[in-house]
Amino acid sequence: MGRHNKLNGIFLLHYLYLGLLLQTLLFLSCSPTKPIGKTISGKVILENTSDFSNVKVSLFNLPQIDTSILNVLSKYPSLLPGVDLNIYLFDQRKQKPFAQTLTDKEGIFSFSNIPDGEYIIFAQKEGYGWRYFKISTSGGEIQIQLNKEVNISGIIQGQNKWTRDRNYIIEGDVEIPNGSSLYIENGCVVRFNGNFKIRVNGRLENEDIPGQMPIIFTTDDTTKTWGGIYVSEQGQLDLKYSVFRSASVGIFIDASNANVSNSIFIDNKNYGVSTVQISNAKNIKIEKCIFTGQPIGLNLEFTDTTVYVKNSIFVSNYESGIYATTSSARIENNYFSGNRYSIQILSNINRDTLLIKNNEFRSSKGYHIVHKGGIVKTIYNEILSSNGGIVLSPAYGTPINIINFNNIAGKKFLLALGSGTKLTDAKFNYWGTESEAEIRNLIFDRNDVSPSDQYYYSYGIVDYSNYFSVPVKEAGVK
User: Is the pTM of this model over 0.70?
Assistant: First the structure.
């Protein structure tokens, strides 16, 4: 009997031990593994002082980038080379910091338990401006230099340079007179403390070094706007690798020469760039730029064939990617997506033919090309739409559009003629189908109007003969 009790005791102990072991294993299997965070630390140095305290240092997640921009750059990487969109599209005014701290007297700061990955680090102190750049949690110690801000207003005489290590605060209108120049280094921050502009009667230019920080033209907060860069008839502008935010008009070019490339125009009040009175004696090039988030990306007004718009991206502008009034510009090798209209053409009467060539159009909210007067040549484009392709709607003279060698596909009406149009040459296109009946259904012209309609004979007819059964290889961005 004693032996039996002893055995029962042993079995009970084993049973309790196994139960405890199972409970421990169950707890371990159900408990989430707490991630081991990384530490980001460094030092901020302030100019002309030994007290480096109270500098606000913030960590931001990388900005969310419109997938339509990412997709097009993945498809056409040559459109915007040397540009890190995480840097160019970052805007601290619109993002909440992931983490934030203040430096001590020695300028030391530290963030602990930070998930592994990439972030934007941003340092700011009143009177010293701000700097930011992209970092990785595996990047080691960080050192940031903040220098005294420089207040600018009035006339800038002679040869001047703004350096990349400072913030320049525009406190009033600035003028670069004829015979004077301003050279801005990449990475310079230009902040406008009001609705002021930089008027260029002389020369404004910057470095041509890809891969560096851009020049930032902006304001302190999203409620403020600034007047833009105004280039007059005598002025010369050559700007690359720049970002324009919160301007009334980012760049206004008035009868002058200008070259703008590798830059982003985002969230401006009216236009990203506006040109006016550009004759054949002048030369304008807008290339490898992104226009997004403003009513009109690019405004072309009274501009001749010396205006070239090339290799640029027009995405999600509220009204139009390009708005052309009395213009014969060359619009080539650009990408349009998500704008209300891709291109609006009011007229180019008394100008040469406006050229739309080798562009790609996708998913506009209205028609891609709204043509209201003058002569346009639309050739070798990819026009893909769920709402509408091209509409000829007379308002400023009879629109004449030569539409050849394009790939045009989507829902009707891919080509629509309004009252007051003429015979429209739309031969040698691919319409996304080999069926003549289906092609006919994608077009609106006199054949779709009742003969009893009093305006029946005022509608033009589309000549879509000699259509292709396969896509045009030469069409689209090259």
Answer: yes
